[in-house]
Amino acid sequence: MLLAFGVLATGCIEPKDDLDDFLKRGEETGLFKDIEDLNEFECLAPPTGECVRTEGTMRQFLFTFAASIDPTKPILLIGTVAVTGGGATMDVTFQQLSATTRTPVGAPLAYNGIAVQPNGCFDSGLQSTPIDGAANPIIADTPLDVEVRLVGGPVCDDVEFACGVLSGTVLGLGISLDGSTFTAQRINDPNVLPTPVADCDGTPIP
């Protein structure tokens, strides 16, 4: 996914927004349930003021999924973001990382043709996502099937950091993931992962 990623009135979380107020607005407007106009999103501003996406551009990011049930134990993934559709879409391939060693585990997860708005915002739609047991930091060594939706941004050629909101459900357990957050941090050295942060405010992971 090329990320100047970017997963609401709303819009993506502004860097200085209060997360609680943001989530409250989302619930009051029904944003988490039915996002009708992505052009109304207020994503993080592109670094240069203009969100340029070039067909074929490919970048890697460290994705941090901080689940609302325990944001201190996030799921970490390496996401490869590729710009497609002349800049109107992106393909994202995730590689889950071990919760203990941060080495790759499980099969890659591919999500193609995700629409990206001119301002760089995106809505992944509800996606079925299997979580490898070794990547599960909350219930160790327990594989999970989840349905998740990421709304965030911006997705631009020069983005180093993107973020947004994650919602969904842990299937079989009925656990809601609404109110969760995600970040995407550009990987500039494949041998050195960025220090994970939980949200648009850059909250450190304890």
Helices and strands in order:
Blueprint: H1 19-29, E1 58-66, E2 75-84, E3 89-96, E4 109-115, E5 122-123, E6 127-131, E7 144-153, E8 161-170, E9 175-176, E10 180-186
Antiparallel strand pairs: 1-2, 1-10, 2-3, 3-4, 5-7, 6-7, 7-8, 8-9, 8-10
Can you walk through the features of this model?
There is one protein chain. With 206 residues, this protein is mostly beta strands. The protein has one domain (19-186). It contains 1 helix and 10 strands; from the N terminus they run αββββββββββ. It has one helix spanning 19-29, and strands at 58-66, 75-84, 89-96, 109-115, 122-123, 127-131, 144-153, 161-170, 175-176, 180-186. Strands 1, 2, 3, 4, 5, 6, 7, 8, 9 and 10 form a 10-stranded antiparallel beta sheet that branches. β7 (144-153) and β8 (161-170) form a beta hairpin. The relative contact order is 0.26. Mean pLDDT is 83; it is low at 1-20 and 25-41.
* Elements, N to C (H/E): HEEEEEEEEEE
How many structural domains? 1
- Tell me about the largest β-sheet: 10 strands, antiparallel
How many helical stretches? Answer: 1
User: Helix proportion of residues, in percent?
Assistant: under 10%
Q: Which radius of gyration do the C-alpha atoms yield?
A: 15 Å
Uncertain spans: 1-20, 25-41
State the shape.
Answer: globular
Terminal CA distance:
27 Å
Which percent band covers the strand fraction?
Answer: 25-35%
Structural class: mainly beta
Mean pLDDT: 83
